[in-house]
Amino acid sequence: MFPLYSRKLDTYDGIDIIDINKYKKPVNRKVMVIIMPIKTDTLTNSFRILTKNTEYQIKADEYGVLKRVWYGRRVDCDMEYMLDYPNTGFSVNPYDAAHNRNYSLNTLPLEYPCDGAGDFRVPALSVIRRDGSRALDLRYTGFKVLDGKYSIPGLPAVYAEKDEAQTIEIYLADGDITVTLRYGVLPKYDIITRSAVISNKGKSAVRLENAMSMCLDIPYGEWDWIHFEGRHAMERIPERAPLIHGVQESSSKRGASSHQQNPSVILCDKTCSETSGECYGAALMYSGSFKTQIEYDQVNQARLVMGINPDLFSWELKPGDDFHTPEAIMTYSAEGFSKLSHNFHRVIRNNVCRGRYKTAKRPVLLNNWEATYFNFDDEKLLEIAKKAAELGADMFVMDDGWFGKRDSDTSGLGDWIVNENKLKGGLKPLVDKVRKMGLKFGIWIEPEMVSEDSDLFRAHPEWVIRIPGRNPALCRSQLVLDMTRNDVRDYLYNAISAILNSADISYIKWDMNRSICDWYSDTLTSVNMGEMPHRYVLGLYELLEKITSDFPDVLIEGCSGGGGRFDAGILYYCPQIWCSDNTDAYDRTKIQYGTSFIYPLSAVGSHVSASPNHQTGRVSSIEARAVTAMAGSFGYELDLNKLTDEEKEEVKNQITRFKGYDDLIHNGTYHRLSDPLRDKFALWQYVAEDKSEILVHGMIFRQEPNMLRYAVRLRGLSEERLYRLETDGKVYTGKALMNGGILLPHTWGDYAPVELHFTEV
Ligand code: DGJ
User: Fold this and answer.
1) Which residues contact 502 (CB under 8 A, 6 or more apart)?
2) In ligand 1, which atom is closest to the CA atom of 509?
3) Which of 2, 393, 567, 704 is deepest in the core (most CB within 10 A)?
């Protein structure tokens, strides 16, 4: 029979790892479970990870093969009984399983499958030994449970207080190659993180050809997968498709996480919706080339692997070396996509983002890019800043074009010296004047890039990524600096700190405007050249870490031509990212809808820009643009002086309104009330933590004659409470709003904004 864990709970070895006595008594079973999420049983080599609503079971079997036994709802029972051992024909059996044809690595759900020893599905780990052999068959050797959450040297990782998280390390080995699988558990958010350390304990080097961060095998069920596809100015559009037999993948080979695919994925059951159904989500905390693969195999089992893109990865693991994979953040929801998103939002907001602006209010900013592009001088900037101050903004951001010879995007990158033809007297006088207006000052930089037409390139042509004897490919007429080089990183650190020390600067927009190719570095030998794409990311992270720790009060907004590097890795250093270069409000409802599946609203840089919109020519009201831009870290990106007086008044009102809503928007619970890719309107809702305030925002796309009103049910309210709608003063019960709903107001014209603000009576 299969033991019920609940009966055995008190005898579990893991229990004495936690000192229950340090928690105030009485401690009831439920609280204990949350405080001590990891249970281990050394008799059966079983590991059970509990979170508030989920359970993950792992077991090393009699051969030492580490199997994933369960991930899903809490079951309180050993789920081994659900594993099947089919003899599929042509199955390969491990030697020590003798002639048991039912035991095959190729059909078992495995925690960290390897290449070459009988599992023919997509692997998590592939190595080549010195003799050229590849077969790797990892077996269990032990485990350790640790208080708190592990961190990863040189890489961003979820962090947590000691009593907020636990870690289990599970050790595997095949000869001299050992692997430590690390699981970090944040029970209150239903979050489990994964990372692996691959070590070479032998005497000769081995080559890692593939080292994924996670593998999740799901033995049963018919699944859809959702990935987030797109292009420049149209990022992270969710695409849902059924799994078909074979391998499906989403990936980037661009050196950054990319506009085209995002390092996040959802596997969901066929009926899964916003509010019901099962779904698994994974987000990679990594900003370089990645790969997510899902294989649906011959026994209808789904395998999800995610990590550094092996197509651009080959790492020499010398004797004694360890290789740390980036971290994958996983969650499971039995209550549809909303719950899955809430888990990701909470962990990213509270345990990924760092620094002062993790909790501090984000400044409402005015950015001059779409107001002036490269064509500005200090006087023009001051005029724009003055109006921003008058209308209530908190910060003025000077975008591209203030340095070197930078009157277009063909020159000047790398020369981080003020262009005094544009800013007379330099940076400080301009910053001081802006500060005197009561505004903070922010500045744009693109540290990783260099123009061929720049003093930096002329002085250090060897600093760019290019293959000797070949012309490098250009992108936006620019080249990429070799971030694996210490001298490059030192130059950039000195240049950035000189800018920050030269004036009272509170914010950096850290841009990155090209995809990377022509991988080659003088710092690496031919044997190590395959390490370069990952070493580039490590170099970038090292620089970001130095800047953020030396300038902790500076808010850094990530950017890569908008959302070309929008990932949980960047959010560790930059708590907000410019979501897209497309500022068209209608398109933004779709881009921000997709982004919201994984990333919290506080992470989404979003601005009101001019109408007609510069990317699409679409005309929309300033209110429609504002309601859409408020779904993020809010700001403006136009010359406010060019607005009508009526529009200026609206802007003033919008900024005041946003400053009343920002806590609700950034820290409340977010619900997608429509699917703007399918529905005739976009609608979303924020609920305060204590459920005392609700804000519904959205846009009705098209006006039709004799238009019917749309009925929408609200979510996440308190059924028992009463809520007053600000616009008409009417009072509704929570029950009514959730079960009956509300009619959206009559609107006029296309792209009509919607705002419904309720407060508890
Ligand atoms: C791309 C960014 O996404 C834009 O907002 C702007 O900063 C330009 N770069 C400037 O070159």
Assistant:
1) 426, 427, 428
2) 7
3) 567
Q: How far is the CA of 659 from the centre of ligand 1 (A)?
A: 26
Q: Which H, E and C letters describe 176-205, residue by residue?
A: CEEEEEEEEEEHHHCEEEEEEEEEECCCCC
Pocket test of ligand 1: the residue of 399, 445, 446 to mutate, having most ligand atoms within 8 Å of its CB, is 399
Query: Cα of 520 to ligand 1 centre, how many Å?
Result: 27
Catalytic (active site) residue 567 = yes
Compute CA distances 733 → 102, 454, 723, 759, whole Å: 59, 64, 6, 11
Could you tell me how far CA 38 lies from the centroid of its own chain? Answer: 26
Compute the distance between CA of residue 739 and CA of residue 732 in angstroms, rounded to an integer: 11
How far does residue 511's CA lie from ligand 1's centre (Å)? Answer: 7
Q: What percent of the chain has pLDDT over 90?
A: 95
Average confidence (pLDDT) over 646-661:
98
Q: Mean pLDDT throughout 418-446?
A: 98
Atom of ligand 1 nearest to the CA of 444: 7
The mean pLDDT value for 619-633 works out to 98
**Among 9-18, 206-215, 696-705, where is mean pLDDT lowest?**
9-18
Instruction: Please give the structure tokens belonging to residue 43.
Output: 């008799």
Whether 399 lines ligand 1, by a CB cut-off of 6 Å, is: yes
Quickly tell me which residue has 């009101």 as its tokens. Answer: 608
Angle at 279 between CA 276 and CA 284, to 5 degrees: 140
Of 169, 176, 647, 750, catalytic:
647
Ligand 1 atom having least distance to the Cα of 578:
3
Strand partners, 694: 687, 758
Contact 109, 68 (CB under 8 A): yes
End-to-end Cα separation, the chain, in angstroms: 55
Q: Both tokens of residue 125?
A: 């780990």
Which residue of 374, 560, 578, 636 sits with most ligand 1 atoms within 8 Å of its CB, as the best mutation to test the pocket? 578
Parallel, antiparallel or unpaired: strands 177-186 and 604-609: unpaired
Judged against a pLDDT cut of 50, whether residue 614 lies above it is answered with yes
| CA 446 – ligand 1 centroid, Å | 9
CA–CA distance, 322 with 182 (Å, rounded to integer): 14
Which whole-number Å values give the CA distances from 515 to 452, 604, 636, in the listed order?
16, 22, 27
Relative to beta strand 742-743, strand 681-687 is unpaired
pTM, 2 dp: 0.96
Residue carrying structure tokens 């800013």: 423
Atom of ligand 1 nearest to the CA of 562: 3
Does 452 qualify as catalytic in the annotation?
Answer: no
β-pairing, 191-200 vs 327-333, is: antiparallel
CB atoms within 10 A of CB 130: 11
Ligand 1 neighbourhood includes 164 CB (under 6 angstroms): no
Q: Whose Cα sits closest to atom 10 in ligand 1?
A: 400
Give residue 19's pLDDT band: very low, low, confident or very high (50, 70, 90).
Answer: very low
Count other C-beta atoms under 10 Å from residue 549's C-beta: 11
